[in-house]
Amino acid sequence: MSKRFIICAAAVLFSWSAVYAQDENTQDAVSGSFIEDGSMSPAEYRKKIEAQAEEYSRITYEEMDLLRRRARQVWGDGYLTSQSLWVDYSPDMKIRRSVEFETGAISVETIADGEAPGKDFFTDGIAGLISATTASVFKSDPLVTGIERRMKEAGMDAVYADVKELPVLAPIVTGYDYPPEDVVRDKAEEIFDSGSVRTYRLRNGKLIARFDGRINVSSEPGGLDLDDGFLRPGGLGGKVHKSAARYKESVARYASQYRIPAALVYAVIHNESSFNPFATSYIPAYGLMQLVPQSGGLAASGEIFGREIILSPSYLYDYSDNIQLGSAYLSKIYHDYFYRIKDWRSRLYCTIAAYNTGIGNVARAFTGTYNLRYAESVINSMTADQCYAMLMRNLPYGQTKAYLKKVTESYNAYLGY
Q: Which terminal Cβ of the chain has fewer Cβ within 10 Å, N or C?
């Protein structure tokens, strides 16, 4: 989700009708931190939430800056987790591992004291990446745990969750959720043997030993229904991500609940995070569908909890909660904001663009104004292909145009998945 989306979403924070579909651990979190006692008027509550959202942003940027400075002190750069990249540091910051979920590139590197380490060191690091789960990574991540600790210390009325235990790389590398140690070790050695190790020195003279390798993260497109579900401008390009299978149950559940195509949910995840459940962008946005807690996440919470509420990193890192929030927001855009658009393909193109850049910028692409009803009348005078072409011509940001094109391609790839 783009930085520009924050500005647009901030203007549409409002309460939606309650749809109580929380799982058990979320219900517990809500009851412990969010109590409807009738002591505040709606205006007072809004003021409180806006103040807490501002404090949340400040805490987040301070914790990001702290971790970035620690990384620079040791490594000379501020290399941190991003949308498709997961970066993991050892507690002393001297070992750094990473996985690029978009390409499958992995690395293990260390500051070598004297001689560079041998094969066993790197295969141990690779094995640790293979065995990682969403819960174990969250608990060891100094950024998100630091943010959450400070939120609690500030007494923030937020939803916290126990991040569900989900193997991330093991299934796509070994074929098992929880593979035996010897299987993990064999796969780690296989990855090591197909990669390469190099050494280099930082400007301060520190010796770095680095392994670079790759795992296969993509497969062929899913089945296509060319007559009923195909988005024609998207073409046949694109592959599905192997990690998509990990989230099939949640995607099916929430796509059905919020009456949107499962292919749309997959396509958004594919392009927002490349199925990296640890995704954290500088905006900041969290998780598979890159919800911004101070804007889009805050608005989407109204659909689930009945009123807007701050969502913690643990809630947004939980894959099921994140998919529910993203699905609820996509549904809101498609069924509520754009319900007057008659052609479903035109409505879907507008929904994809709005998820990235906001409702107002989509309206402006058709009329030069933010008048949504006027824009919808213009859209209804066009074919779906003409609607797509006008969005690609008039959307105000190149990043959003590229996003629309890529998500449309991914949508076609995930049809029938």
A: C
